[in-house]
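W.,

You were right to be curious about this one. When I first looked at the sequence I had no strong expectations either way, so I just let the prediction run and decided to look at it fresh. Below is the sequence, 137 residues in total, followed by the output.
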Amino acid sequence: MNLNSSKTRSLSWVSSQVVEIEYNDNTTITLENAILDYHLFDKFVKNQRVKKLIISGANTKITEEAKHYISKENQKRANKIIAEAIVVKSNTQKIIANCYFKLIKLYYPTKVFTDKNDALNWLNNLNKGTSLPLISL
């Protein structure tokens, strides 16, 4: 296994501040996967403040346990996450993303997109000092 990937996703730098997290197609993210994914994320970003570009996989699902774990872990990392853009591939994923935003309590700006370039442009144009939540679907 590549140091920048797990069973469910891969990580890569898009720019000096933007980390892309791309989920695999046709996978279910379990609590065990989520724990490993956050361990890898922490090693990858090395305590740097980042903007997250999350690319949903087609037909990717997440268990309730994993959702709650992710919520808690993002709250712990809120001071290290500048903003988060999620690119979805279906209306169902858009609904799931909306629920996800409720779970993370919106400690940083978040937005859902259907186009990766639009998401990346939004992240790149954000004011680095922004601390107020921004929700847009």
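Here's what jumped out at me. The beta strands are 9-13, 18-23, 28-29, 50-55, 61-62, 81-87, 110-113. And, maybe more interesting for your project: The chain is about 40% helix and 25% strand.

Coffee later to discuss?

I.
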